[in-house]
Structure formats: C-alpha cells, structure tokens
C-alpha cells in the first residue's frame, strides 16, 4: 500500500525552491522588460483578434476592443501572447521530465462527476476572465508582479483574490474534498 | 542598465524571443511546483495543501527584495518600470469575482495553460471559460465603462500612498510570509490526518 502510493505520488519540486525560482524570474523579467509576468492578457488578445477577424467594423466601435486594435499589426503580436505560448511549452517540458504528461483526463473529487467538474471549471474560467479585466490583471500580472513591484493595486488584488477564496471556500467544499 | 527593453538595450524582434523563453521558465516552474493540478491548488483554501501559499509568498518576497537590491546596486532604474495602476472599486470587485473563479475553476489563467500541456481537460475547459468570460465582458463593456475607469488613483506604489520606504514593506512582508509558512505547516499536518479522499 505504502509502496504503491509512493510510486504514484508525483515528483514535485520543493515549494520554497519553486518560489525562489519564480521570484528570481520576476526580477529577471522586470530587469529585461520593465514589467512583470502575465497570463490573462494572452486570452484577451485572442478575444480581441477573434472579434476583429469576424467583424472588424463592429470590433472598432466597441470601446474595449478598440483599445487593443492597431492598424500596424494583429493583437496577437503581443509580448504576453508569446510569453503565454512559452508557459504552455514550459509546462509541457516539466510534465515530460517528471512523467506527468498523460492522455486527456479530468481531475476531480470522488464526490463529483467529471461532467460536474467540467461545468464548474467552465464557470470558474468565465468568472476569472471577467474579474481579471476589472482587476487589470490576474494572479500573475496583478497579484504576483504587481505586489512584487510594490503596486498598491497589485497588493489589493492579491489580498482580495485569496481573501475571497477563504471566505467562500466552505460553500464549495464538496467540489474538492 | 535595466530595464533593458525600455532603455533600448534590447530591441525589436528579440523581445519576442525573450518572451517565449521567459514563458517557458514560468510554465516550467508552475508545473514542476504542482500547479498543473487543480486539487493541489485549492488545497490552500481547505488546509490540506499549502503549496500555493509557499510558492507565491516566497516568490513575492524574493522578487521584492531582489528588485530593491538591483536598485541599490544601480542595475535597474525602478522609476522606469511599469507600476500597475490602481482603480480602487473596479479592482476590488474584479478580485472578488476572481476569488469565485479560483474556487470554482481550481486554476488561475497561467496554471491552466500548464494543465492543458499535461493533458488535463478541466484546464482546457477553464481556459475556454476565460475566453468566453473576456468576450462577454468586452461585449457588455459599454454598460459599465464608467465604472471600469472609476476610482483611479494613478500608477502608485505603496510608498507613494503611505510615504513609508519600500524596504519596510519588503521586510514586513517577509516576516508575515515566514510566520505563515510556520503556521500553515502545523495546520496542514492536522488537516491531512482527517482527509482520506485526497492522495498526497
């Protein structure tokens, strides 16, 4: 029993080592680019591009899309889009090295079905997408990089994302444990 | 003298090559730390796995301290770096919405990309959700445009607002982080004893 669990347990790196590496990466990124890491910005670029391709005239009239549309180049020609592609490949690389790349699977608590998990994940993604626009960034851009550069807004986002999580966790306990 | 790209030391296409390399390092660290698994991530809210807190807080204190040292040694001009602007009310509301998204989705955007990379369908669906959410936000934007721009304080740092030097915030944050590492270690041990549904 014990042996089987050991065999199955994934090999993660020490979290403090992960944190030090991530912190150094933020410093390096700010040193090179003058700003921190990000993630939700790439999906925003994809949304703007989609709207712009489907109906350029309508997209230009929308005051939100219009902020990110330029005549010189596609909204996909954006630093965060390339960085987010890198996130995918970096995750894949780590997954291959540590033997975690598998056929498609859904991770969920034994108390809920895969279907429930997927519906809730979709809803969670939608909320995170909406929230990140009001928050001027997500956990990477606002909470991590914002706080690391001592931004007031960054610290507010960090405290409130996690604070809200703790405040409401009891309501969704069944989804996870 | 940093920052390199804003100062014109690195130009043009190179910035995209660097973007991919930085992204690869970012994704690698996230996945290797266990953030490609939603159940690892939400453990921070239920006390059975504090890996998120450990990685996140360590990263923040290392980055804060690191940037202050880079500034001290004259390697980077902190006046030239981007400071995330503060829009008080929209950022408060946005963060609360993200908190709900976090508990329901089990990922944040960056971690969901790494989850897709190792074949997690819940990560893929979460990312599709992000796309739909941002699309709905953009389409409805004219309805709450005024709110979106409300409460603007500026691209301000904690020091701008309080007058307290950044180093003091870095120090305070480090003390809080170290205390939380110790406290959560104790909580985690207790909670894990009573949970059978989750394999560690």
For the largest interface, the chains and their residue counts are: A-B, 129 and 130 residues
Low-confidence stretches of chain B: none
Oligomeric state: heterodimer
Largest sheet of chain A: none
Structural class by sheet pairing and helices of chain B:
mainly alpha
Largest sheet of chain B: 2 strands, antiparallel
SSE order of chain A = HHHHHHHHH
> In total, how many domains does the architecture of chain B comprise?
1
From the N-terminal CA to the C-terminal CA of chain A, the straight-line distance is 21 Å
Q: Structural class per helix/strand content of chain A?
A: mainly alpha
Spans of chain A with pLDDT under 50 lasting ≥5 residues?
1-7
* Content of β-strand of chain A: under 5%
Count the domains of chain A: 2
Rg of chain A over CA atoms, rounded to whole Å, is: 19 Å
Q: Shape of chain A from CA axes?
A: globular
**Helical amount among residues of chain B, as a percent range?**
55-70%
Mean pLDDT score of chain A, rounded? 93
Helix percent of chain A reads: 55-70%
Mean pLDDT of chain B: 95
Q: Number of helical segments of chain A? A: 9
Quick summary:
With 177 residues, chain A is mostly helical.
């Amino acid at each position: 029993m014990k042996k089987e669990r050991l065999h199955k347990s994934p090999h993660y790196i020490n979290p403090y080592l992960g944190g030090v590496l991530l912190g150094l990466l933020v410093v390096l990124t700010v040193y090179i680019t003058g700003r921190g890491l990000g993630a939700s910005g790439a999906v925003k670029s994809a949304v703007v591009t989609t709207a712009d391709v489907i109906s350029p005239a309508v997209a230009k009239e929308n005051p939100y899309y219009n902020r990110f549309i330029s005549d010189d180049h596609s909204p996909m020609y954006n630093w965060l889009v390339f960085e987010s592609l890198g996130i995918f490949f970096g995750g894949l690389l780590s997954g291959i090295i540590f033997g975690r790349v598998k056929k498609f699977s859904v991770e969920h608590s034994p108390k809920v079905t895969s279907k429930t998990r997927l519906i809730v994940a979709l809803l969670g993604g939608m909320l995170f997408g909406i929230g990140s626009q009001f928050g001027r960034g997500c956990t990477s851009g606002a909470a991590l990089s914002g706080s690391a550069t001592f931004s007031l807004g960054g610290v507010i986002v960090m405290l409130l994302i996690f604070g809200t999580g703790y405040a409401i966790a009891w309501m969704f306990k069944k989804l996870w444990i | 003298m940093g920052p390199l790209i804003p100062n014109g030391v690195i130009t043009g296409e190179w910035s995209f090559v660097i973007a991919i390399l930085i992204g690869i390092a970012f994704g690698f660290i996230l996945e290797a730390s266990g953030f490609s698994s939603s159940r690892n991530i939400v453990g921070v809210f239920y006390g059975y796995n504090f890996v998120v807190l450990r990685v996140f807080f360590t990263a923040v204190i290392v980055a804060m301290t690191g940037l202050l040292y880079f500034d001290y040694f004259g390697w980077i001009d902190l006046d030239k770096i981007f400071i995330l602007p503060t829009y008080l009310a929209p950022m408060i509301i946005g963060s609360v919405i993200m908190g709900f998204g976090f508990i329901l989705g089990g990922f944040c955007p960056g971690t969901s990309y790494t989850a897709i990379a190792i074949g997690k369908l819940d990560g893929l669906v979460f990312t599709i959700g992000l796309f739909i959410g941002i699309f709905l936000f953009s389409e409805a934007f004219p309805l709450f445009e005024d709110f979106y721009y409300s409460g603007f304080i500026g691209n301000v740092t904690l020091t701008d607002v309080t007058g307290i030097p950044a180093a003091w915030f870095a120090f305070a944050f480090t003390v809080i982080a170290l205390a939380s590492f110790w406290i959560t270690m104790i909580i985690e041990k207790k909670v894990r004893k009573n949970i059978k549904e989750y394999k560690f």
